[in-house]
Structure formats: structure tokens, C-alpha cells
Design brief:
Helix Hairpins; 4-stranded antiparallel sheet; 54% helix; rod-shaped; transmembrane; DnaJ_domain_protein
Length: 297
């Protein structure tokens, strides 16, 4: 549940502010730096009605101010002053564009009423590269899938050690604190006082849980220490999504995982493969005492 909440929160953070929002933040800061901290888009244009100003009022105010601030009116000034005038006029045009667009005007009016956030810092650098929703979901999918894989691996190793320790403890108690089986080769029965379960310890070292009807082997090697692809969310998440949607009408994806070979069998096969040697030829001893084998024809 916490993982799902974290994913939803991350998606919400990544989609909270749009590119247009950052443009509004930046323009708002520049205007306040030039004209004073109390200056707003509306006050600069002389719109006393603020957010209630109509489209015609905004256009009329823009035309009036643009005639005053137009850079062409500055003829005999330095290049620096001319450049500053051009930048100011460009900002005026951007303000008019924002207030003339109903969607962007709503966003500005929202921050105008609620207050502008501290957008610089992590948010500012984030705006340099703003991933889309699809990119964000893919990133989260890869991150969570990788985290889930290593979490599975760690949990299985812990389960493996826990079962191995339990089996060794039961065996040691049944054999009187020793790891050596009884000389008579008999089976030993042990009942746990804590759980009330009965265990049978064979002379071979195998430990079974006696349920009364059948014996269940306690074997840590039945745990697959290396999760396969079907164990991870890389497979399960798309498969569950498919089964919940298209899988209702078509053949659903099988989510079961089969582990045919326990670790013990894999180790035995590996040792058997190592022990296999190519047939040797005739044994020959050299003068220096080194033994070699001739090639077999």
C-alpha cells in the first residue's frame, strides 16, 4: 500500500506544474525585479478590475502601454538602454499573450489569488528537463521493478538461512546437541514445546514435520535464490493489467511460476559435470618425473 501511495505521489509531483506555469513564474519574477515587488500583470497594464478584466479591456490596455514602451520611440539612446527597452517590451507582449489566453489566464489568476510558490531550486532545475507523464511512468516502472527484484533476492536469502537454521537446531536437539547422527541409525522424534509440532529427524539428517497424516520435508534448498523474470513486477504488473482488461476476452497470461530444480539438484548436477573427465590415453612418465597421457586414437 505504501509503495502504491509513493508512486501516486511521485506522478502527482511530476504533473503538478506545467511548462506554462514555469513561464508564468519566470515572467512574474522578472516584472517584479524591474517594476517593484508589488507589481502584477494587471497593475502594470493599469487594469484596476484585476482578474475581472474583460478581454477587450486587456487588449485596450496593452495597445495603450505598448505605444508608450515601444523601442522605436527611443532613437538617441545607447545600445544598452535600447536593449533593456526591447526586453521590457517583449515582456509586455508576453503578459498580454497570457492574459488573452483563457487557459493561461486561469493559471495566472490562481497563483495571483493563492500566492506564487518558491519555484526556484529543485523545481527550477527540474523545469530544465521536464519529463512527460509517459516518461515518468516508464521511469517508475523500471525503478520499482528493479527494487522489487533485489527485495525478492534479499528476502529469499533470509528465508533460506532461517529454514536452514531451524533444521540444524531441530537436528541438534534430536541428536543431543551433536551434528553427528546416532550410531544405531535410528530415527529420532522431537516435539517443540513452543509450537507443539512434532518433528522426525532421519539418520541421514533430513528433518520432517509430522502432521499426523503425512510427513513434510524441511528443505531450504526448495527456495529459489535467483528470482526469474516471471517473479518480478517487470512481468507481473503488465500481466495483471492485461488479465484485468483484455485477458477477460482473450486467453489470460499464466502468472504461476514453476521451479523444477531445487538448489541441491542444481549443485549436484554442477558437481557431476565437473567430475566428468575426458577419457585418458596411455600413461607415460617422462625423464623429469612428469606424468603425461598420450592421445587416444
Amino acid at each position: 500500500m505504501r509503495l502504491v501511495f509513493a508512486i501516486i505521489l511521485l506522478i502527482g509531483v511530476c504533473t503538478a506544474w506545467t511548462t506554462e506555469d514555469y513561464e508564468i513564474f519566470k515572467l512574474n519574477d522578472l516584472i517584479k525585479q524591474d517594476l517593484g515587488p508589488e507589481t502584477t500583470f494587471y497593475s502594470w497594464l493599469g487594469l484596476t478590475n484585476g482578474p475581472s478584466s474583460t478581454s477587450s479591456e486587456i487588449k485596450k490596455a496593452y495597445r495603450k502601454l505598448s505605444k508608450v514602451l515601444h523601442p522605436d520611440k527611443l532613437s538617441s539612446v545607447s545600445k544598452k538602454v535600447k536593449k533593456q527597452a526591447e526586453e521590457k517590451f517583449s515582456r509586455l507582449s508576453l503578459v498580454a499573450d497570457i492574459l488573452s489566453d483563457q487557459s493561461r489566464k486561469r493559471r495566472y489568476d490562481y497563483f495571483y489569488a493563492k500566492g506564487f510558490p518558491r519555484w526556484k531550486g529543485t523545481g527550477y532545475y527540474y523545469s530544465k528537463y521536464r519529463p512527460g507523464l509517459i516518461t515518468t511512468i516508464i521511469f517508475i516502472y523500471i525503478f520499482v521493478g528493479t527494487f522489487h527484484y533485489f527485495a525478492l533476492k534479499i528476502n529469499r536469502k533470509q528465508d533460506y538461512k532461517r529454514i536452514a537454521n531451524i533444521r540444524n537446531e531441530i537436528k541438534a536437539q534430536a541428536w543431543g546437541g551433536s551434528q553427528v547422527p546416532p550410531l544405531d541409525g535410528s530415527d529420532r522424534k522431537l516435539t517443540s514445546e513452543a509450537s507443539g509440532k512434532t518433528f522426525i529427524v532421519k539418520s541421514t539428517g533430513d528433518v520432517y514435520v509430522d502432521t499426523g497424516n503425512e510427513l513434510h520435508l524441511i528443505n531450504e534448498n526448495e527456495i529459489n535464490l535467483n528470482p526469474c523474470f516471471k517473479d518480478t513486477l517487470f512481468f507481473k504488473l503488465p500481466a495483471i493489467t492485461y488479465n484485468a482488461s483484455l485477458g477477460r476476452f482473450f486467453t489470460p497470461i499464466d502468472l504461476s511460476v514453476s521451479f523444477d530444480k531445487p538448489q541441491e539438484t542444481i549443485k549436484e548436477e554442477a558437481e557431476h559435470k565437473k567430475s566428468k573427465k575426458k577419457p585418458k590415453g596411455k600413461k607415460m612418465e617422462l625423464a623429469n618425473g612428469k606424468v603425461v597421457y598420450s592421445r587416444k586414437k
